[in-house]
Amino acid sequence: MIPNPNPTMFIMLTLGVSAFISIMLLPALLELKKPRDAGPKPINDLALSPHLGKIEIPLIDIEKSYEKEETVSIKPIINLIAFLPNLEV
Amino acid sequence: MMTELLEALFLLLMAIIATYIIRHYIFTLTAIKNAKNPNLRRNDGSSHIKVSILIPARNEEKVIERILQRMTQLTYPKNEMQVIVINDASTDRTGEIADKFAKNYDYIRVLHRNVEDGGGKGKTSALNTGLKLVDGEIVFCFDADYYPQRDIIENLSKEFNDPKVGAVQGRVIVLNEPYSIVTRLIALERTGGYRVDQEARDILGLVTQYGGTVGGIRRSLLEQLGGWDESVLAEDTELTMRVYLAGYKIRYVNEAECYEEAVENWKAYRKQRYRWAKGHMQCAFKHWLNVIKSDKLSVKQKIDTLLLLNVYFMPVLVLLSWITGIVLFLFSSTQWMSTVWTLAPFSVYSFIGNFAPFYEVGVGAQLDGRTRAQWLISLLVFAFLYNIPICTKALVDLLFSKIKRKNDNHWTKTDHSGNGNTYITI
Questions:
Q1: Which residues in chain B are closer than 8 Å to A62, comparing Cβ atoms?
Q2: Which of A38, B143, B283, B296 is 20 to 30 Å from B259 by CA-CA measure?
Q3: B170: which DSSP letter?
C-alpha cells in the first residue's frame, strides 16, 4: 500500500526527520567541538592499599588546542567581513 | 501468502529485538539499584594463594614495557606470583624487552615461540603453551596493552574463597579515550558493557562473561576443561560457556580496574569486531544445544546465555527487520502493519547502542560521574551501522566455512600504537 505522494507531506517529513537528526546529534557535535569531558576514569589504585598513592593521568588541555584551531579558522572570515560596509551610525 | 509470511517474520524479529531491550532495561535498573547500595566485596588480605599471570605478546614493543613495569609494581607478594610472557614469534623488540625484565626480576619468565615451534598462531595457542609452565593455583591473563591497578590480583583472587567460583573478571577502562572518535565511542560501549551489563549479570546470578583478559581462572578447572579452545576466535566466551556448563560460576569485580588501549581507527575497529563477531557466532553454534540441555544452569541462566551467545546476530537481524518492514510498508494491505512499522525505528533506536544500548551506556556514564561523555551517545548509531556489514560478513563467512567444512579462522592481531602511554606516568 504505497501512500499517495503529497508535496506538503513530503516537505513535512523531510523537515521532521532533519530536525530529529539535528537535535539528536547536536550534543555530540558540541562535545566534539569543545570537549569538556574529563577523560578516562582514573583506575582506583587505593582499593586495598591507600598508602601507595594514585597514579597521575595528565590530561591534554583539549580546549586550548581547539582555541588555536578556532583562531585560525576565524581569520579568513574576519578578513571577508572587513570589506563589508560599516552599518553602525 | 508471501505477505503473511513476511508479516510473521517481521513480528518475530520485533519480538527478538524487544526481548533484548527488556533484558538491558533489567540490567540498567539493577545497576542503578545497586549503585545506591553497593555490595563491595573487600579482601581482608588474610590469605594469598599462588597465582600465575600469562601475558601473550606478538609484536608489542610499544606497550610490553608498560605492562611489565606494572607487574613489578603490583602489591601482591612477589613470592606468590609468577609472570609468564609468551613472546609469540614477534619480529620486533618484544622478546628483547621482556628478557630485560626477566633478567632483573626472578618471578618474570619469558617463553619464546618461533614460527617453527608453532608460534604466531594467535593468542589462544600462545596461552595454551604458557599454561604448561604455570605453577600457580589461579591463572590470570592480561593482554600486553593493558595496565591494571596495583592491587588487582588481591581484588580478583579473593573471589576464589568460594569453591563454586571457577573464574573472575575485572573491569576494563579505555585508557586512550581522548585519542579519537573511535576510542571515545569504544569507551562508552565499555562503560555500558562493564559498569552496567556485567555488574547486573553478576548481581542477578546470570552468566557473567569472562573477557579473556583482566580475569583469572582456577588452574585445576582450566586443565580439567582441556585449556583454551584454539578452534574458535572468541576463546573467552567459549571458556565462559564451558565454565558454566561444568557447574562453576564466574564473578565480576567492578572494583578491579584495568586500563586497555582501544583500537584508534575504523579499520582496526572493523578487524577486531569481525573477529569478535565470528568467534561469538562460532560459540553460539557450538554451545546453544549444550546450554539448553544443561542441568547445571537455571532457566534464567539458560535464557541469558542464549541471548548472550546470539548478541552478534542482532545487527544482522535488525537489518533484516528494516528490509522486511520497508517491504511490508510498501506492499502490505494490512493497516496495523503501518503502525507497527512506525514503531520499529524507535525500538531499534533503543537497541542501537549494539552490545550496550543507549540507556545502558548513559546510566553507566552517569554512575561513573561522566555526565559530559553522555553527550556523545548519539554517535553510537554510527558504530552500530558499521557493525551491520561487519557482523553480516562474519555470519556469511562462517556459514561458508561450515558448508565447505573448512576451519579458516585466522587470528588477526590487534595492533597497539602505545599512544595510551602518554596518559600514564610509569
A1: 178
A2: B283
A3: E
Of residues B149, B187, B378, nearest to A44 (C-beta): B149
- The shortest CB-CB distance from B424 to any of A36, A47, A57 is to A57
ipTM of the complex: 0.75
Contact residues, chain B, for A32 at CB < 8 Å: 181, 376
Residue of chain A nearest B328, judged by CA positions = A1
What's the CA dihedral at B62, B65, B66, B67 to 10 degrees? 110
Distance, in Å, from the CA atom of A20 to the CA atom of B19, rounded to the nearest integer, reads: 26
Nearest CB neighbour to A48, from listed B151, B372, B422: B151
Cα distance between residue B357 and residue B363, in whole Å: 10
Contacts of A76 (CB under 8 A, 6+ apart): none
Q: Which residues, in sequence order, are bridge partners of residue B84?
A: B54, B109
Q: Which residue of B has its CA nearest to A35?
A: B372
Residue B249 is classified by DSSP as: E
Mutate to test the interface with A, among B145, B151, B384, B426 (most CBs of A within 10 A): B151
- Report the topology of domain B51-302: Spore Coat Polysaccharide Biosynthesis Protein SpsA; Chain A (3.90.550)
What distance in Å separates the CA atoms of residue B299 and residue B104, rounded to the nearest whole number?
A: 52
One digit per residue, the tens of pLDDT, for chain B of length 426 reads 788 888 889 888 888 888 888 899 999 999 999 987 766 665 655 567 999 999 999 999 999 999 999 999 999 999 999 999 999 999 999 999 999 999 999 999 999 998 887 788 889 999 999 999 999 999 999 999 999 999 999 999 999 999 999 999 999 999 999 889 999 999 999 999 999 999 999 999 999 999 999 999 999 999 999 999 999 999 999 999 999 999 999 999 999 999 999 999 999 999 999 999 999 999 999 999 999 999 999 999 999 999 999 999 998 988 888 888 888 877 776 766 666 665 665 566 555 555 567 889 999 999 999 889 999 998 988 888 899 999 999 999 999 988 887 776 676 777 777 777 666 755
Nearest-CA distance B278 → chain A (Å): 29
Beta strands B81-88 and B108-113 are parallel
